[in-house]
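PT: before anyone asks, these are the final sequences, not the draft ones from last week. 998 residues across everything. Please model them as a single complex and drop the result in this thread when it's through.
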Amino acid sequence: MSYLELLKLAAPETIVVVTALAVLTIGLTSTKAKGLCSVVAVLGIAVAIGAVLMLPPHANLFGGMLVISPLNSLFKIICLILALVTLPLFSSERSLPNPGEFLAMLLLGAVGLMLLVGSEELLMIFIGLELLGLSLYVLAAFDKSDIRSAEAGLKYFLFGSTASAFTLFGISFIYGMAGTTALAAIGQKLAGAPVQPLLAVGIVMTLVGFAFKIAAAPFHLWAPDAYQGAPIASAAFIASASKVASFVVLGKIVLVGFAPARGSADWHAMLAGWSPVLAALAALSILLGNFVALAQTNVRRLLAYSAVAHGGYTLLGIIAGGRDGFSATLFYTSIYAITLIGAFAIVGVVRRESGDDDLQNFVGLAARSPFLAGSMSIFLLSLAGLPPLAGFFGKFYLFSAALRAGGNHGLLWLVTVALFGSFVSLYYYLIVLKVIFVGESSASTAQRGQSGSGLNNSTARELPSRATIAVLAAAVLFLGIMPQTLAARIIASLP
Amino acid sequence: MIAWTIYITFAGAIVLLVVPRGFVRWIALVTATAGFAISLVTFFCDDVDLAHFTTVMRVPWVPALGMNYHLAVDGISLTLVLVTGLVAISSVLFSWDVTDRANEFFFWLLLVVGGSYGVFLSADLFLLFLFYELVIVPKYFLIAIFGSTNKEYGAMKLTLYSFFGGALVFLGIIAIYVNGGSLDLNQLAQFQFAPQLQSWAFPVLFLGFAVLAGIWPLHTWAPTGHVAAPTAGSMLLAGIVMKLGAYAALRVAMNLFPQGFQMWRTWIAVLAVVGIVYAAAVALRQRDLKFVIGYSSVSHMGFVLLGFATANVFGVSGSVLQMFSHGVIGALLFAVAGRMIYRRTHTRELDALSGMNLARTLPFAAFTFVIASAASMGIPGFSGFAAEITILIGAWKSYPLAVWITGVGMVLVAAFTLRALKRSFFDVDLGGSAAPSGDVKQMSASPTQLSSSAERSIHLEPITIPEKLGASLLMFATLAVGLYPKLLLDRIQPAVEAMRFLK
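LR: through. Structure below.
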């Protein structure tokens, strides 16, 4: 193994790191280099995507530390694309100083995502988690003029670091039991032996760390504040790309590494293991997320609690396991990420236009901007799981995979909970849409009159955001009508 | 060719988003007419085998999961496509006066129509469910934006009920998919599901669909929804949307789970009969004309469910005929109440209407309402009679007791219909009977009418041409089918006989 070859296989990560450093340098040399920084960042990500495409289909370095497989490459690309569509949200933001630093943190976060996705070894996964986490903490607290941003960053940091400690502790237990940190080897070592208490402790502690990352109840407490307080672009990145990568890794860890300790979450044959733990997390997330979301009046908090619930749905596929279940989870989390970035982009535009992102700021949006209102309805109805949008197919795939798993419809209870949850969720999504389409406020027209002079200026600045919204809305619609473009790719990439 | 009903309707809906306001209603009308024309042509030319669920289009859609874009047609679905086209045209005609946010209005309207065509023609379970759920949100916006009384409440209630039913259906469909290993309705119809599965999946699926068909006690969305909806919205709800549930219950739940159906059909009959009698009794006490019609819809849909429960050719064919018949009659009744009366008098309260002497001022409305009421009561010669008598013949074989109780219900239907008819049009207040018939303007101008109270002086705009056209279309349909039911029954019956649960 020569270093040259290592460099070749790690080329995408290297490119993104170099881009991050370059962006940082540009940001240092001039304070008004927002445009240039953004362009360099976009170029860097685009080149990195190209580099991922050039990778060989299979490679395995250092016992799983860097694994290149169709699945990993696919999700590296998806993570990079998610980072790419998050960028325009940032460039529409006027209040954030130091664009170079922000973009550099975002790019370093993207490197963390790629390491996370591209590794099948616990230590490397932990390093990826930390790199991602640290970047996200900074991103969440980036708006120094806003006290809520500081609150978001601090909360996220405190919860996140505690969770990391749990994960590391859990990993050390597992290393103690299995004598290795490579996932495949752990799976082989654990096979055949009954689940010992020490191993159970290790597994549960590892899962706690990931439950935090995907904001599954009861480890979701950071999410509402982080989603609401962080700058829009940071919140979108935390809610989307970080979650996608976490689900990919979580799936690999439990389905490959902990495969022997699976247990059973079937209602007629519960058996200790990770699947009942995840099932409990999923059920709790779905119920708590949806019911608490009903009471929210701030759109970002509402999206945060609905994110908790969606985390719960997505877990269903992992609990179901197998190729079918895992691909359903991967499909669902990908389209969820796309949808959520779009929703956040709209929240960002509305926030800049009307000052805040409470429900009342959305009153009469359909009259102010039919484009934003139409796109928002696409995103929210996709989250609710209505056709012909991507969320509908995603839910169908996910729930049918869950019902198929286990003997004699063992997961029927979980599917029922999830369907009930999505029934509840329609109510609050419709409330938002009702406010947008039905409500007509006099305040909104007055505001428009005031800002009429600065309209051209703001439209030019909003252009990147609006373009992103249009692309994402089209993607959600397209993936709803032609889901096989993504689904077939995911299925094919799974071994 | 029948598949084009779906494409044309959705294309029309998309075109509506970009055209200037002046063209909107014409485009909507042309789209609706084209859909109806296509279904009519398919209906009268004999090159499609209507006795079986014949595939007209089949393209792989998501091969990895076995989903196909698969459309098929038989006598049952074609009948319903036909009524969808009829109601679509007339609801556009009865919305001719919508000017506020007209693009949006007709966009949502055509989405409901297009989704309904899709449900009736789908031969793939996932596709059927997709179209079925697609209809939910347009309904919400149609009511919440353009509705009248208590519209946001009515819209939300209706949507949540639909979605609740949808969640049950979702569960049933994935149970079918996971066990049957296919989503193709024709393949699944050959598949033998385990009795244990059928025993729980059938009621889940049937109830889920029946929510939309207004099954008692999950019918309460219907009256509030109908009342809140704009005229075209009520027409679509009563005329088409309630049929979606009934049709899907027949096509999916009963046809795929014959044993489950046999286990539960007595319960369906019980709920249906309770629904018929209860809704009719409640309608008798309503003050709002639209509530009366809303409950009458529930009562009439009870007949459809009763026909299903009989599990014989007569009963089920009668149900399909009743779906057509009620689609037409329900739309007609709502058109009179919502457009002809409410838009002019701004009230639907029977007490307020009874003083207005509407039979004189709006003779065409009165005529239409008499025809619609007669059809609704089941007077021979109208489609309602043909359908209900067929259902009752079928029910006599299976549940004689149900026929007796339903008889009581039919008397109640006649009672509340006549009551509504009399109170709204023919209740002449004292002294008012001397009012000269004829032109409205003349009447309001003549100061000699002492009894012409405040209401009398309201200038009531005469019935417009689009209204007359729409009403004539529906009246013609109910008469044509009433006088010659064989026209439809000849196509429905073979298709029903091909269904599995009869064997």
